[in-house]
Design a protein that fits this description.
single chain, mainly beta, Jelly Rolls, six-stranded antiparallel β-sheet, 1 helix, 12 strands
Length: 182
């Protein structure tokens, strides 16, 4: 707590402790950012539970090694017009969710070594239909994440939670991640 309240002769006066900034000053120091990425999407058929893309690096996502951020929103442009519900998984290492680097297979018991690096996830399932493309959006996420002490990067993967889908090009999904950088 950075504020100190002193009452003198029945009058309360609030002041900052020496060397401490107010909560508003701290919030003003945080940076709102948008990170654009085109992950390498599998072109194999993805059934529900299959990995769509994995271990795509968000390089220099944090302001410093071991930094923190709050994921606020995700927008997905699906130029292949699929609009499939996706879990977006945030990780602090570049491990893979399924046994193949290319994705397109399900997560199984053999892939459990990555569990300790998962920072959290969110599902994007609401899409605007642009006839030949779709835009998915998730707002007010509030997911607090932290990179490891030796890196400013985090990694993302996606898992199909909708219907069987095949993206025709590895660049068919484009993401914008809105976040507050500490």
């Amino acid at each position: 707590m950075s504020e100190l309240t002193i009452t003198t002769a029945g009058v309360a006066q609030t002041q900052l402790r020496p060397g401490m900034g107010s909560n508003n000053e701290r919030l003003n120091q945080m940076k709102t950012k948008v990170f654009d990425i085109t992950p390498t999407t599998t072109t194999a058929e993805c059934v529900v539970g299959d990995v769509v893309f994995q271990a795509d690096e968000l390089a220099n996502f944090m302001s410093e090694k071991g930094g923190t951020a709050i994921i606020q929103s995700i927008t997905i442009l699906d130029v292949d017009d699929e609009g499939t519900s996706l879990d977006i998984v945030f990780m602090d290492t570049d491990g893979i969710l399924d046994a193949t680097v290319a994705g397109g297979t399900a997560i199984d018991a053999a892939d459990g070594v990555i569990a300790n690096s998962v920072l959290g996830f969110t599902n994007v399932s609401n899409y605007f239909d642009g006839i030949a493309w779709k835009v998915g959006q998730k707002d007010n996420i509030g997911l607090v994440i932290k990179s490891v002490s030796t890196s400013r990067s985090i990694w993302i993967s996606a898992v199909n939670r909708g219907a069987t889908t095949t993206w025709t090009d590895a660049a068919d999904l484009k993401l914008k991640i809105g976040y507050i950088q500490d």
